[in-house]
Amino acid sequence: MNLYKNIVRPILFKLDPEPAHNFTFGWIRRASSIPGVGSIIKAAYGYKSPKLEREVFGIRFPNPVGLAAGLDKEAQLIDELANMGFGFIEIGTLTPVGQPGNPEPRMFRLPEDKAVINRMGFNNQGVEQAVKRLRARKSKVIVGGNIGKNKVTPNERATEDYEKCFEALYDYVDYFVVNVSSPNTPNLRALQEKEPLKELLSSVKKLNEAKPKAKPILLKIAPDLTDGQLDDIIEIVGETGIDGVIATNTTIDRSGLTADKNKVENIGAGGLSGAPVTKRSTEVIRYLHEKSGESFPIIGVGGIMSPQDAIDKLKAGASLIQIYTGFIYEGPGLVKRINKAVEKAGL
């Protein structure tokens, strides 16, 4: 019997998504504070094998399954989530100054589609609060820092926000992700256009090169980009010399949903994640991988709801994968199932 899907998820799904998230985080924190519980969780959900290890952009990952940004935005549960078998954890999106995000409710489930719509709006307490928690962490799990701009910062000054976050996090994360693809911060996606994006990435890269040891810098892109825009991304990665791409963020597309149309319309704006994004995300990965001549690593994310979804993304050209909505619908056991399947497939 699947304890999560049969007992835990039905209880959590009686709550609205954001309160359910907060309740779950509180429960995990309290349970993990009991001596021995962390070891029990690690034994239940962890899976180690030399065949799963891989080196990507100069970092040795114990396995290819990561937690995508958005679930632990503020590095609240790094140690606790590390016990659930993740090969790496991405925090954020973080901004220089704390901001409340968009008005609630701002997260919605579409169970019939195994999907979530969110318009959180980079809600966080600011990068310095996350740094305090990162300083206190005990586990050695690989951590990525996903960085963005404050809502009130105009696009022409966006680079300053990304630079502030980079400087604050540099000593505490293993790699960086420049997020210009969230649909929930006004005009943010305009930064994906060729010239502003090149300028932004070049500025962050310049800061990075001035450090004693440069850290990998990745770009997170939307699934809604055209082939022409993806060609621009390939060119920009080459010109700026950043280390890779995360494909993809949430989509603004609503086509093909089985949920009641009125329900979806009433929910309104936001990024759609989960099963409806699976196919498009994999298409973007394959396009980037093939058109670039396999010239940079890709972290595949978007609609990984099963081990087969993960394998499809790895076969399409992803070096690593991340889960988010799949974790909500399938529970922590998904991490172990994916790792076992990847090992068996020899990927």
UniProtKB/TrEMBL annotation:
BP GO annotations: 'de novo' pyrimidine nucleobase biosynthetic process; 'de novo' UMP biosynthetic process
Pfam families in UniProt: DHO_dh
Record field: catalytic activity: (S)-dihydroorotate + a quinone = orotate + a quinol
Compartment(s) of residence: Cell membrane; Membrane
Coiled-coil ranges per UniProt: none
Keywords of this entry: Cell membrane, Flavoprotein, FMN, Membrane, Oxidoreductase, Pyrimidine biosynthesis
Domain of life: Bacteria
Pathway it works in: Pyrimidine metabolism; UMP biosynthesis via de novo pathway; orotate from (S)-dihydroorotate (quinone route): step 1/1
Cofactor note text: Binds 1 FMN per subunit.
Domain Dihydroorotate dehydrogenase catalytic, chain residue ranges per copy: 52-344
EC assignment: 1.3.5.2
GO cellular component entries: cytoplasm; plasma membrane
Binding site for FMN: 69-73, 93, 146, 179, 220, 248, 274, 303, 324-325
Membrane topology classification: Peripheral membrane protein
Principal localisation: membrane
Self-association and partners: Monomer.
The protein's role, per its UniProt record: Catalyzes the conversion of dihydroorotate to orotate with quinone as electron acceptor.
Alphabetical list of PANTHER family matching this protein: DIHYDROOROTATE DEHYDROGENASE (QUINONE), MITOCHONDRIAL (PTHR48109:SF4), DIHYDROOROTATE DEHYDROGENASE (QUINONE), MITOCHONDRIAL-RELATED (PTHR48109)
Identification of the protein by name: Dihydroorotate dehydrogenase (quinone)
Organism the protein comes from: Fulvitalea axinellae
Gene: pyrD
